[in-house]
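User: Fold this; tokens only.

Assistant: Input:
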Amino acid sequence: MEAFVAALTVFVLAIFLGFEVITKVPPTLHTPLMSGSNAISGITILGAILSAGAQHTTLSAVLGTLAVALATINVVGGFLVTNRMLQMFKPSRRELPDRQVK
């Protein structure tokens, strides 16, 4: 029970720390940090695949499969958000000059 309380305390403190860090990130740093987050989630996917594939217990297989699904959603969502933000910096078709051959 003592280990559970210690782990729960660390988890709750990590939530508060994560919230404070995320709210302090300026918008100009969002895209580079999202790319780094995607790389970390890719590593998480590999670990989750290993955990699900080892099948030490039924619980580890279920949690590993759930971790694969959630990390995959995180990676795909991160790439979509990053791509959308990068599209904002490209000129629109209306701003591009016409290149007609005379």
